[in-house]
Amino acid sequence: MEKNKRALEKINWGMIGVGNVTEKKSGPAFNKIAHSALVAVMGRNPQKAADYALRHGIPKWYDNVDELIADPDINAVYIATPPDSHLEYAAKVMRAGKAVYVEKPMARNAAECEEMNRISRETGSPLFVAFYRRVLPYFVKLKELIDNRVIGDPRCVNIHLHWQPYDEEVGPNPQPRWRVFPELSGGGHFHDLASHQFDFLEYVFGPIKYAAGIARNQAGLYKADDIVVANFEFESGILGNGSWCYTVNKEQRIDEAQIIGSLGRIVFSFFEKYTIRVETASGAEEYNIPYPEHVQQPLLEEIVKELRGEGKSPSTGQTGARASALLDQITARK
């Protein structure tokens, strides 16, 4: 852990935010990992914070960020709030000498990510980002297939993510959630979801050296872009393209990606399906690998190991910032 002090024996977590992502994806996992415990939560609404603590058996709750960060029982903090507060909260935690695990996207833009990394270097406090697909069994298998060259030399990547509007975004009294307000999220659904995709692709294929796209709002349901198309090129020479649209009808909903190689292709899903299909001249083979109950648990296990001096997390502030930089490049208006 670079400049960080001594390794920790037990990781006592505080959690900022008690929203949906914490109910199953992350929150319960902290107490299911050896040498790890969730000891306090914080929510701006005291009733919600108290209710979350009661339902999940958390010893303490707060409605003030500074009080949670100052809690002497806490040595690591999980930030599960919208991206507009990530830099502010992460800076406070790191300057308090505590490790940070922050939700994705890491921040609203690349500049905020770089400031977070600068503070991590300055303070020696570790910084991790919730790009948990790097260690989910489904994606571990996908990377294994690519690394073992079952489709030969990778040539290109194609991504199609087309979803219908969320129920709260349409109707006589629409109430869109924070993800489609750029001042809160940095963008729209593209920033929320494509960040996972680009992070994993760089993990598998290495850095993307060129990325460009067109981002527009076609349907006018909210302020953020609702359609994006992009081309990108990896330093290795592999090419990629994608289209992301969030205003199709539900019958055209699709979440499919292809990796095309010299000897075949792999078809998979980033979000909704558990099947990986490998097609080569010798036929097709499928692997069905469901997600674990708490999808962030495998990554959290690696983070706990690193904080204990026993391993290295594959997702850090440095890797997390890469995805935000790519989103900025693709959605920049010309």
Summarize this entry quickly.
This protein is α/β, with parallel strands linked by helices and 334 residues long. Helices cover 31% and strands 25% of the residues.
Question: How would you characterize the overall build of this protein?
Answer:
With 334 residues, the chain is an alpha/beta fold. It folds into two domains: 11-131, NAD(P)-binding Rossmann-like Domain (Rossmann fold, 3-Layer(aba) Sandwich); 137-290, 2-Layer Sandwich (Dihydrodipicolinate Reductase, domain 2). 31% of the residues lie in helices and 25% in strands. The chain is built from ten helices and 14 strands. It has helices at residues 20-23, 46-56, 65-70, 86-95, 110-123, 137-147, 182-185, 189-205, 297-307, 317-331; strands at 11-16, 36-42, 60-62, 76-79, 99-102, 127-129, 154-162, 208-216, 227-234, 239-245, 254-261, 264-268, 275-280, 283-288. It has an eight-stranded mixed sheet with strand order 8-9-10-7-11-12-13-14, covered by helices on one side. Helix 5 (110-123) packs antiparallel against helix 10 and helix 8 crosses helix 10. The longest helix has 17 residues, at 189-205. The mean pLDDT is 97.
